[in-house]
Structure formats: C-alpha cells, structure tokens
Amino acid sequence: MAVKTPPIQYPVGIEDLAICFMKDKQDTLSALPEYEDDVYSQTNITNLGIAGTNSTFEKWASNQLIISISRNTKYTLTFDLAGIAQEIYDRMKDNARTKGIVFNSSNPKEFPKFAIGVIFPMNDGTRKARWYPRCQLAPADETYKTLTEEMDIPDQQHVIEALPLLYNKNTVADFYDGDPTNAASALTVSDFLKQVICDESQLAALTGTGSPTNLEKGGDN
Q: Looking at residue 219, what is its pLDDT?
C-alpha cells in the first residue's frame, strides 16, 4: 500500500460577495429558477460564518451500528460586512420605496429569493468559490454607534438562510479550480461566477459563457 503525502492546503481569506436575484422572486417545483442577467459584486466581507442544519438517522442491528445517514436541510450564513449597497439591501427585503419611503408592517411576508456567491483564495494560489442558489434574508437586529475621536466603522451583520432549491434540492454548488477534473476545461472562478450554477445540466455549456464581471482577482487562477 502506497503512502501519499499531498501538501496541506488552507484558505487565506475571503474575497468578493456576489448576489443575483431570481426573476420571479421565488422558485418552483417544475423547473430551475431563472435569474436576472446582472450579478452584483460587493467587496465588503470581513467575516463569514457557515452553519449547517444537520439531522442524523442511525440504525442498530445485531448489537452494531449498521446504518448512519446524515441530512443537511439548509445553511445559515452569518455575514459581517463593512457595508452593503442600499439598493441591494432593499431588494433583499422586497422594499419598494415611494419618494424614498417604505413602510413595514407586522403582516406575514415572504422575502424574495436570490443566489449568493463567495470566493475563498487558498494558500497555494488556487481558489474556491461557491454558489448558494436559493437564499433568503433573515430579519436581524441593527446597531448604530456614535462616531468618536478614534474613527471606527463597525461591521454590519446580516443573516441569510441558504435553502434547498425546490426543483432539485441542491443547496450549494462548490467549485475548486485546482481539481484534476478541471484540468482540461480550465474553468476559472470568474467563469463560475458569471452566472448562477445550480444544476448538473449547466456544466456542459459552462466554460466561456456570460459576460465578464469584476469578481476576478489576481488573474484566472
């Protein structure tokens, strides 16, 4: 049996935030969702926490654990942001302003769905990226502080639920540009984030599609 010692890899930060809204604000069981042509880019992430919602089924027989099945129903994404464009935040909350004014009531309301993309550079120069294709803003507390002599801009925290798509139950599309299966296609993080990737049916036509965005940093690695 051969012993392999691949080099250790680890993330060295987090780059831009990508946001793309569903055309009809919600998806359906009958087809993949359609997304708008515009992918918004925000260079604003200071910290991202990702928590799964896991459940496990275990089956014991003959005094042994013979089956252990895990299921993750959604992710909770906790973003600490240096800031976010008000236009994008209003769209996440489905705020339609008139003369700059919007009213919120206690009536039940379902927020629009959108896709979230994030980029993780690695220590060896490779990069990872993810699309969470069906996201929804969760109401969060707000805190505002006065400006002092020691100037500081506090982070804003936003909680976003990444839910499974109704059509195929996918919750995340994870891309690693250094994977051997990507050697021939040479797909880049920029290619991956030109459009929302949420189903295997998109892979054949993926390379070279769409228009360039400003989500690419440090070349096409």
A: 41
Residue 13: left (phi > 0), alpha (psi -120 to 50), or beta? left
What letters, b where the CB count within 10 A reaches 16 and e where it falls short, cover 195-216? bbbbeeeeeeebeeeeeebebb
Is the torsion defined by CA of 180, 185, 188, 192 positive or negative?
A: negative
Share of the chain above pLDDT 90, in %: 75
CA 86 to CA 107: how far, in whole Å? 23
Contact 214, 41 (CB under 8 A): yes
β-pairing verdict for 64-81 and 45-61 = antiparallel
Average pLDDT for 147-151: 79
**CA proximity to 70, closest of 82, 54, 87:** 54
Q: Does 37 have pLDDT greater than 50?
A: yes
